[in-house]
Design goal:
Shape: extended
Helix content: 40-55%
Structural class: mainly alpha
Largest sheet: 2 strands, antiparallel
Strand order of the largest sheet: 1-2
Distance between the termini: 83 Å
Order of helices and strands: HHEEHHH
Number of strands: 2
Strand content: under 5%
């Protein structure tokens, strides 16, 4: 019985070492990562934060990454995230500045107090490439008691 535990512990130790060895290069790779050609977002943004923001944009417009990012010149199966070849990327930058400007001008006080009011891509796009020309109208607004 005593000898049956040793092989089990040995296998667990090997699995642990392999897992640890696999995460060290990944952490080093993330530390060495540096975003290229950022014009609106902070130059020192982390890969995790940048990916999160880009996924939010992708979801808000209901598109894939190639909607704004051009194909790589060397490998057509990959995207060149730093390239400005796709005109939609510069338009996306303009929209980022626009929403930031709206939020700072009109919602800054509310954001500081409540942290909930802001305009995002999804405000107009609602999961569509092109935002609706007109917002759907409410036929009859609910009335308060006594009106």
């Amino acid at each position: 019985m005593k000898y049956q535990i040793k092989p089990f512990l040995f296998i667990i130790a090997i699995i642990g070492c392999v897992s640890l060895a696999a995460t060290v290069p990944q952490q080093k790779q993330q530390q060495d990562w540096k975003a290229k050609n950022l014009k609106v977002l902070p130059k020192d943004i982390s890969k995790k934060a940048l990916d999160s923001i880009m996924h939010d944009y992708r979801d808000a417009l209901g598109v894939k990454c190639n909607f704004c990012h051009a194909k790589s010149a060397t490998d057509s199966t990959k995207l060149d995230f730093a390239s400005d070849a796709n005109r939609k990327k510069n338009f996306a930058r303009y929209m980022m500045v626009m929403t930031d400007s709206i939020n700072n001008k009109y919602f800054k006080r509310q954001l500081q107090r409540h942290g909930t009011f802001s305009v995002t891509c999804a405000t107009c796009h609602r999961g569509e490439e092109e935002p609706a020309v007109a917002m759907p109208m409410i036929e009859k607004m609910p009335q308060k008691k006594g009106e």
